[in-house]
Write a structure and sequence with these properties.
The longest helix is centred in the middle third of the chain and has 36 residues, at 433-468. The chain is an alpha+beta fold. It folds into 3 domains: 1-47 and 304-423, no CATH class; 54-278, no CATH class; 478-676, no CATH class. It is found in: Cell membrane. Residues 300-417, 691-799 form the ABC3 transporter permease C-terminal domain.
């Protein structure tokens, strides 16, 4: 019997090659999308699963409220870790560590080898390794970081610095950090094989901080919070998060009592380990994060595309039912039961779905390559090493088989053998429940496709708005680069400045900190009278405002000085301080970090310090030579030959090498940095465009199936109408009218669904575009045009058929 099913299946597929190819293509698209999205989602949801007690591991993070504005920081005050360790209970482990955020030069002692811009370095101790359990190759966690100037390496970095040596031979070797801190390698651990945000490669003993010049200024300050100062805890079994948070905040207030009348607030909360990879509010040590809403959205896209493929299969299968009606009648007449027929048709669907699945396996690597910018590095498809993927694919095949094949199997197996043998299968079929089912499925297809089209347009419109909105500064033809912030010789920067100014292709040079808008931020607590505010800080020289086109509203520009002798503030900060006009702020004094009492010398117009997701925050610009390590360069317009900028960069690199011969030179375009703010939105837009295109393609196939089904029903009617004088246009209009109404109905249903979803998505932006009526009009016209094209190909063909052929007895 099984062999007979196979023979019948292949005979049916070969007889209807076009429909079979369409069915397989639709299902393969849905299966490929589902497989790729499964790989991506399972990858991200598999992060930080290296500890079976991970549900009890938390990071302590800081939340602030200054003048009613919320701020967040992944770090804590430096003394908090020691205080929690010594004074609180309810923890199995408390691990404080500090990240080394700057690109560090690592040199191998006695080997004359240096490795520049090394990252993923932290200062840690035994508590870190008790919490995050690496496999030790050499050394032990109890002693490897017990003393100052000890270093533990991961296996990958051990081989990088000491190629060809065994782990035992590397132990005892020495490394220099920035040519000043000399350490001894005391341990080697395996790199994490699991997906993790803890991609640290070098671990320097925590006690090294307090015995070298690396000791941070905030080491003993309870009032200063730095993202580099990290604190993780593992709660004891039965410990309650709210109670632990209460005790930590109580401990903080013990050492940093709030002043009477001060309404600003600092509080700590526990962030679960499994939240770190998805929470952009606090970040994950500079590692790329995932967005849960985006991942859930991808799952929805996969489900919708798969559903479209199934609907398409149902419509096309039922559209071909007439061709198999006699076969079914004969089978029933000779004794086949309805159950046997259902199993046969489900078996056919299974085989067809299996072919689509095999095709999807071949397509998946190509899709992963096409979306390389969105897919994490190293993510691929390997059924041999990924048993979860194989299981997912098997379940997916079974699910699609049931969804796609069960309803058509019931329809086909339910035919009356007498009617089928008399060619009466489709009498009044246009008014049956099955016809309405097909129409409902077609409407559902076009609703999904229409929502995808509308979402694509809205996301693209927001990206265009973000990139073209007046941000309050100039961003074109500006490049910037930075020197080492710890460079002790300030004269080198001045010398480089003079060399850059002498380059004829450069219009202007400014030495300060980061550009007006950047991913990184520096903020500090400032007080005016009794009002404390967390304020963003930018460092700039006298040319900073002019180079970036920042508008001075009142007062005067900052003056050159070795110390901070005045600051510019933005309009937002002036408003928070209560000044009715910008001029009123001039000459007033603010207290900066309790150390500096400086006057406000000018007020500048607001500009966006980061992406449009964030509101404009209070900000100051000051001249501070010791903190100025970023060169901003405005270039003259490119020449017609397009060689001026290339020449400028070559001369800039030559000037750099003359001052810093051992350092690599690299620069960034400011406008490209702004565009990177919206990398995630661009990726979403690209995915939506593909999803919309695939949804339209599959929906059009579904519509095509319904048209074919209807034309076959009305073949004789069309022939009679042509004999009675109906024109081709009249016949096409008659047949198409019903389908156009279905598309219009789908559009009406899609409008509120798309509006609600995209309105919610836009709420993440503090500054956003509107959903204009033209978006819906254009999207509707696009969908209607595609539907008309699909309909026209079949209806015109049917209307041109010779009526003699239409009326011929079957």
């Amino acid at each position: 019997m099984f062999k007979n099913y196979l023979v019948v299946t292949w005979r049916s597929l070969w007889k209807n090659k076009t429909f079979s190819a369409i069915n397989i293509s639709g299902l393969a698209i849905g299966l490929s999308a589902s497989l790729v999205i499964y790989l991506l989602v399972s990858y991200h949801f598999g992060f930080n699963k290296f500890d079976r007690d991970g549900d009890r591991i938390y990071r302590i993070v800081s939340d602030f409220v200054f003048t009613g504005v919320e701020y967040h920081n992944s770090g804590v005050t430096s003394p908090l870790g020691r205080a929690v360790q010594n004074e609180l209970t309810g923890f199995d482990e408390v691990a404080a560590f500090r990240t080394w955020n700057d690109g560090v030069k690592v040199s191998v002692a006695d080997a004359h080898k240096s490795f520049k811009k090394q990252r993923n370095i932290i200062f840690a101790n035994v508590h870190y390794f008790n919490l995050f359990r690496h496999q030790w190759i050499a050394g032990t966690p109890a002693t490897a970081l017990q003393q100052p100037y000890q270093t533990v390496l991961t296996a990958s970095n051990a081989q990088l610095y000491f190629p060809g040596l065994s782990a035992s031979e590397i132990i005892g070797r020495e490394l220099y950090f920035n040519d000043t801190v000399r350490t001894t390698v005391t341990g080697i651990v395996n790199d994490f094989k699991e997906n993790t945000d803890f991609a640290f490669k070098i671990f320097v003993s925590y006690s090294t901080l307090s015995t070298t010049g690396l000791k941070p200024e905030d080491w003993d300050q309870w009032s200063s919070t730095n993202g580099a100062s990290q604190l993780f805890v593992k709660l004891s079994a039965g410990a309650q998060v709210p109670q632990v948070e209460k005790e930590i905040n109580k401990l903080y207030n013990k050492y940093n009592k709030p002043e009477p009348g001060n309404n600003n607030k600092t509080s700590y909360r526990l962030q679960p380990l499994n939240d770190i990879h998805f929470n952009s509010t606090y970040g994950a040590f500079g590692q790329p994060l995932a967005n849960k809403q985006t991942l859930y959205g991808l799952l929805a896209i996969a489900a919708f595309l798969l559903l479209l493929g199934c609907i398409n299969f149902i419509n096309l299968t039922t559209a071909q039912a007439a061709q198999r009606a006699k076969e079914i009648g004969v089978r029933k007449a000779i004794g086949s039961s309805q159950k046997q027929l259902i199993l046969q048709f489900l078996g056919e669907t299974f085989q067809l779905t299996l072919i689509a699945a095999l095709l999807s396996i071949l397509l998946t690597p190509l899709i992963l390559k096409a979306f390389a910018g969105f897919i994490p590095e190293g993510l691929g498809l390997s059924l041999a090493t990924q048993p979860g993927v194989l299981l997912f694919l098997i379940l997916l095949i079974l699910l699609v088989t049931v969804l796609s094949g069960f309803y058509p199997a019931l329809v086909l197996a339910g035919y009356n053998p007498v009617q089928t043998l008399k060619n009466q299968t489709y009498a009044n079929a246009g008014k049956t429940r099955n016809a309405w089912m097909r129409k409902s499925l077609t409407v559902s297809q076009f609703v999904i496709a229409q929502v995808f089209i509308l979402a694509t347009v809205v996301v693209s419109k927001q990206i265009h708005y973000s990139l073209n909105k007046d941000l309050g500064f100039k961003k074109d033809a500006i490049v910037y680069f930075s020197t080492n912030v710890n460079e002790p010789d300030a004269k080198k920067r001045i010398s480089l400045m003079n060399k850059l100014k002498a380059i004829p292709e450069i219009a202007m040079v400014s030495l300060g900190s980061a550009p007006p808008s950047s991913n990184g931020s520096w903020s500090s607590t400032m007080r005016y009278k009794d009002l404390e505010t967390d304020v963003q800080v930018k460092i700039g020289d006298t040319g900073y405002l002019k180079l970036y086109g920042l508008q001075l509203l009142a007062g005067e520009n900052i003056q050159h000085s070795d110390t901070v002798n005045g600051v510019l503030i933005n309009e937002r900060y002036a408003q928070i301080l209560g000044f009715a006009t910008s001029q009123q702020a001039i000459g007033q004094y603010i207290t900066w970090d309790e150390e500096r009492h400086v006057p406000i010398t000018g007020v500048i117009a607001n500009f966006h310090q980061t992406s449009l997701r964030e509101p404009i925050k209070p900000l100051i610009i000051a001249h501070w030579s010791a903190k100025a390590n970023t060169f901003s360069i405005a270039l003259y317009p490119q020449n017609k030959a397009g060689t001026a900028w290339k020449a400028a960069f070559g001369k800039m690199e030559k000037a750099w090498k003359e001052i810093y011969p051992e350092e690599d030179f690299s620069y960034s375009f400011f406008n490209e940095e702004i565009a990177r703010f919206y990398k995630n939105e661009r990726q979403i837009s690209r995915l939506l465009m593909w999803a919309a295109a695939l949804a339209i393609f599959i929906s059009s196939l579904g519509l095509l199936g319904l048209v074919i089904y209807t034309i076959r029903q009305r073949t004789k009617e069309i022939g009679v109408r042509k004999i009675l004088g109906a024109s081709v246009v009249q016949i096409v209009t008659l047949i198409s009218k019903e389908f156009i109404l279905l598309v219009i109905l789908a559009f009406i249903i899609a409008i509120p669904l798309a509006w609600l979803s995209m309105h919610q998505w836009l709420q993440q932006f503090a500054y956003r575009t509107g959903m204009s009526s033209w978006i819906f009009v254009v999207s509707g016209l696009v969908m209607l045009s595609i539907a008309l094209l699909t309909l026209g190909l079949q209806t015109i063909r049917a209307a041109l058929v010779n009526p003699v052929k239409s009326l011929r007895a079957e």
